[in-house]
Amino acid sequence: MIDKKILLELVQTRMPYGKYKGSILCDIPEFYLAWYHQKGFPAGRLGMLLSTLYEIKLNGLEYLLREIRKM
Fold it and tell me: Which domain of life is it from (predicted)?
């Protein structure tokens, strides 16, 4: 079970740097997350969020984020 607070962060937090700086995390494309997965996610909370988002997108669970985003 995924913590609802983490899902909320994925639809509210913006990427602080890089190619997708300023984008809401859940809008970052899967190929970019796959690149991070291969390279290594950053340390700390951001890395955990990106890693979680990668798993969500990889497993076709994006509908979870769409539902939260509607709120």
Answer: Bacteria
Q: Which two tokens stand for residue 46?
A: 């951001």
Q: How many structural domains is the chain composed of? A: 1
Domain that holds residue 42: 4-70
Both tokens of 69, joined, read: 């985003």
Please choose, from the candidates 44, 52, 41, the residue with its C-alpha nearest in 3D space to the C-alpha of residue 9.
52
Instruction: Give tens-digit pLDDT for 27-64.
Output: 999 999 999 999 999 999 999 999 999 999 999 999 98
- Euclidean distance between the first and the last CA atom of the chain, given in angstroms as a whole number: 20
Residue 50 to residue 37: CA distance in whole angstroms: 9
What is the pTM (predicted TM-score) of this model?
Answer: 0.92
Instruction: Provide the token pair at 38.
Output: 């291969």
